[in-house]
Amino acid sequence: MTDVTTLDVDAVKAFVTIADLQSFTRAADALGTTQGAISVKLKRLEQKVGQKLVERTPRLVRLSAQGAVFLDPARAFLAAHDRAIAGLSAERRRFSLGIATHVGAPELPTLLARLNAHDPALTIEVRLDDARDLLDAFDRGIIDAVIIFREDDRRDGEVLGPDQFGWFATPDFVHRPGEPLRLAASSPACGILNIATRALDAAGLPWNEVFLGCGAFAVAEAVSAGLAVSVFSCRMAPPGTIDVSRRLGLPELPASEIVLLSTLSDARSRAALRILAAAFRDHPPASHHR
């Protein structure tokens, strides 16, 4: 790299956000600015360091070899800056975030770690639960923000993207015609379960709940072991499972939307929430055979 005397914090933050989200559009949304402004900041940083950091095509955004080398030092630079700013105030900010178990992104732990590095003075308390329980806690003021799938006729909230559900089981799962479908569910209050069982009833298909109330992890384990069928978001279906809707003649489930509801008003908390929201927005669903 060329001789660098100073780095612009906003430009480095733009670079790291582009690297994390692999998109100029999502990076701009996460940082509350425009795609043009993000491009200008990146160009200014590349001119400063004398290296091309990001390679951009109409279909792909990825780091250059130099950008990959610079990424970790850039994170450390931002973390040091934020620690210095946080040191001016003894007050730590925190907010509670609820994420529905059917919605949670697999990369969430990594994303939270990066958020902590970006803003060490902000603590995010995450609760994973059924959507209706989270929505009830949000309406009662117990949780500051929730990311859930849209239910019933409630129209408020920011739409982060579509969510499609399917019936998932292992490829060798056996269901004998005429026998009740073995349906694994984590909670009788689960909205997706209610939608699924209503669809089965409407189609005249008998079913039995198994592993009820054992938690989302136990349900996923039961399905992965070939013991039952369950309903999952196509983004969150357990590895090794497939959509068996057609093979078993199960009713199609309606599409939904992932939505964000928040009461947060301070700029730093909302900035962190925008980064989280951008990770969910346009997140491609996993590919599963039918």
UniProtKB/TrEMBL annotation:
This is LysR family transcriptional regulator. Gene3D superfamilies: Periplasmic binding protein-like II (3.40.190.10), Winged helix-like DNA-binding domain superfamily/Winged helix DNA-binding domain (1.10.10.10). It comes from the Bacteria. Belongs to the LysR transcriptional regulatory family. InterPro entries: LTTR, LysR_HTH_N, LysR_subst-bd, WH-like_DNA-bd_sf, WH_DNA-bd_sf. It holds the Pfam family LysR_substrate. Keywords: DNA-binding, Transcription, Transcription regulation. NodD regulates the expression of the nodABCFE genes which encode other nodulation proteins. NodD is also a negative regulator of its own expression. Binds flavonoids as inducers. Coiled coil: none annotated. Residues 7-64 form the HTH lysR-type domain.
